[in-house]
Amino acid sequence: MEGFTLAQPRSLDDALAAGPQAGAKYIAGGTDLMQLAKDNVETPHHLIDIEGLLPDTISTATDGSLQLGALARMVEVATHADVRSSWPALSEALLLSASPQIRNMGTVGGNLLQRTRCGYFRDVGFSCNKRSPGSGCPAIPGESRGLGVLGVSDHCIATHPSDMPVALMAMDASLQLVSPGGGTRLVPFAEFYRLPGSTPEIETNLLPGELIVAVVVPRSASARRSRYVKVRDRASFEFAVVSAAVALEVTDGTVRNVRIAMGGVAPRPWRLSQVEAALQGRPATPESFQEAASLAGEGAVTTKDNAFKVKLMERAILRGLQLASA
Ligand SMILES: Cc1cc2nc3c(=O)[nH]c(=O)nc-3n(C[C@H](O)[C@H](O)[C@H](O)COP(=O)(O)OP(=O)(O)OC[C@H]3O[C@@H](n4cnc5c(N)ncnc54)[C@H](O)[C@@H]3O)c2cc1C
């Protein structure tokens, strides 16, 4: 692990002024960043502690939307009474994430920016286009069981590892950002993460030094009936092989509104608009659920190791629809 300085700025302005300097990284709970630094995957030279500088609250705005401060701990969001009743998939996704110790430390902002768990990225003994642009992707011909099948490129097939963003993608959330100049902007969640293309090292549309301040999640009938299904190799403390967040509004036996997002299959939480379109206005029956779920793998690019994910996606969506409509 390389040496670094640790700054504890007194104000947000001071933190934002320090953010864009070369080798600087913000640190929140530190549960991902410190592991990456210890493994020399990331080598930050200046850590900027943002504790106390951004909201850590969970509140409701006058329009009913949920406001999650970037420094809210994962455990606080997961166990919040309003989150549990009005955005249940969000609570479920967090409770199925990591371990109690990590959920006590990990923050909303840090979870959104967790780096991929691709073994080739996390081991500096291998080349990796994401870690070292242009060095190659040994995952494509190599061990790829846990890697992506949608939105991947010839340069990278890594998946986004976090659970909470999958639920947020199914709830049409937005991110409040603040930049070093003090300007703020609201970015729809669907526009936050980038696909790898030929630049897999650029993962989001965050500008240099920009900070996530909060996440805004609209209140809706479908979010209220949302569920999160996580399929993993062991029952706890494990990342998703495939996960599905399903938000569903059914009136008089007909699907009025549905949002489906998947984790473990793509470089970002993946919205399945073709499955949603096939369900919209259709009877909420096992037959139409099955028919729509069978479209999940459209456009998938698989390897010899991960082709099974297409069927697993279908099953996870089906289970999510069953639970949300029950
Ligand atoms: C063994 C293990 C198992 C795990 N299993 C899961 C799992 O199943 N599901 C899951 O979702 N997660 C899992 N995790 C990951 C864990 O949830 C993340 O480590 C945690 O969410 C990161 O939050 P943090 O606050 O500690 O982030 P940090 O490590 O502090 O930061 C992570 C990144 O975010 C940046 N950052 C942090 N806050 C902001 C902000 N407000 N604005 C801009 N940039 C910011 C930092 O600069 C850094 O680049 C696991 C972790 C471990 C170690």
Structure description:
The chain is an alpha+beta fold and 326 residues long. Among the domains are: 5-49, 2-Layer Sandwich (Uridine Diphospho-n-acetylenolpyruvylglucosamine Reductase, domain 2), CATH 3.30.43; 222-325, Enolase-like, domain 1 (2-Layer Sandwich). It is built from twelve helices and twelve strands. The strands form three sheets. A five-stranded antiparallel sheet has the order 4-5-8-6-7, with no helix packed on it. Strands 9-10-11-12 form a four-stranded antiparallel sheet. A three-stranded parallel sheet has the order 1-3-2, with no helix packed on it. Strand 11 (254-263) and strand 12 form a beta hairpin. The chain is globular. The termini are far apart. The model has no long low-confidence stretch (mean pLDDT 98). The structure holds flavin-adenine dinucleotide. Flavin-adenine dinucleotide is lined by residues 25-33, 35, 54, 70, 74, 97-98, 102, 105-107, 109-111, 113-114, 162-164, 211-212, 237, 239.
